[in-house]
Structures are given as structure tokens and as C-alpha cells.
């Protein structure tokens, strides 16, 4: 057996958020369908609502990236558009004609600004604590709005991070390499002494590698490694970082 590949030089580890540190507490379609069901809309299928959410999110994002920063929007206004369009596509309504749905919309936005909307992966606290105790700088690189901070606090893990880079604040989004360069500059670490961990090859792995960082994709469908050689691209859980760093 080959011994595990080490990353013993690493001084900075940055993380993506969604599907890396945490995941939605339930399918998005279920969360977005429930308000419609509560307000009496019939025959609501969560898989349809989930597909319409993805459609609405893509449409609003294409028109207003970085949560409408360039247009002077707030993130709340941005999400209001996404929710209104999702429900419009799903049940052919104008949300402004349904006052109760306006209140449901506001509750939905608030839900995803706390841990109520998410489930943290079990390995996260132990790995963050291990890395911090080794003196390694920790950061977040995320295409997120301000709620990234409140979610991390609500999950009890914000204290581990030296910085949280959010696309709404810096004006660039992954896969733009500039957001990775901003992360390196935030703690003055050279690219080859930094590791980025995420779940998307396009948004995480390739742009991190393009600026000279090490990168790993977490794929929890893969078995976690033992003493075999670690992949230079994939890890089966964040716990694999303990074996490598």
C-alpha cells in the first residue's frame, strides 16, 4: 500500500459552504412548496417546485449576479425576486395579490439565514478544530450573501474562520479566479501553501488550481481513505484532511 499523500506545507485552508460544510435541511422543493400548501394551493409537487426554483434562481442570477450588487439591490430584494418567480412558475400566481404569501416569503428568507435551513455535516467541527489547533489559517470562499455569517454563527462554527469571503461583498463570484486571489491576500499566504476544498469542479477545483492553490473536491459518495494514497483531486469526507495535513 502507498502511504497517504501529505499536504504538510499547507498554511491556509479555504472552504466552500453548500455541500461542503452544510447542506439544506430538506430538499429545496419541499421548503418552497410548503408555504403554497399552507395557503391552500392544491396538487403542489415538491419536485416541480424544486425545478422551478432552479429555473428562477438561474434567471435572476443571470440578470443580477452577486445578489444585484451592481444594480444597487439588497440581498433581501434579490431573494424576494427569486421566491416570487419560483411561485409564479409553479402555480401561475402574482405574489403581490396574496398578502399571506408575502409573509410566508419573508419567513422563508429568514429561515435560510440561520441553521434552521441547513444540516451541518458531522465531520465539520472536528476537522475545523484540528486545523485551527495546528495553526492553519481558515477561510470561506462562497458565492453567498450576508447570511453566510449568520448561518455559520448559528451552526457554531464561525469562530474557526479567519475570514469569510462572500461574493456580495467583493463583487466577484466563483469561478472567477480573483476571489481566490483575494482569499490569499487576506492572510498573505502564497498559493502553493494554500488548499481549497469544495464540491464543484467548475466553481471550486479548477479556479483554485488556476491560481496555483492545491484543491480537493469532497465527494461523500466515495469511501473515506485509510492508509492508502489520497487522491490528488477527491476526498471522501473532510476527515481525510486530518490524514493529509
TrEMBL record:
Organism name: Coemansia aciculifera
Source superkingdom: Eukaryota
GO molecular function, one term: phosphatase activity
Protein name (Swiss-Prot/TrEMBL): HAD-superfamily hydrolase
InterPro entries assigned to the protein according to its UniProt record, in alphabetical order: HAD-like_hydrolase_domain, HAD-like_sf, HAD-SF_hydro_IA, HAD-SF_hydro_IA_REG-2-like, HAD-SF_hydro_IA_REG-2-like_cap, HAD_sf
Any single GO CC term annotated in Swiss-Prot or TrEMBL for this entry: nucleus
Gene3D superfamilies found in the cross-reference section: HAD superfamily/HAD-like (3.40.50.1000), Haloacid dehalogenase-like hydrolase (1.10.150.720)
Taxonomic lineage from the root: Eukaryota, Fungi, Fungi incertae sedis, Zoopagomycota, Kickxellomycotina
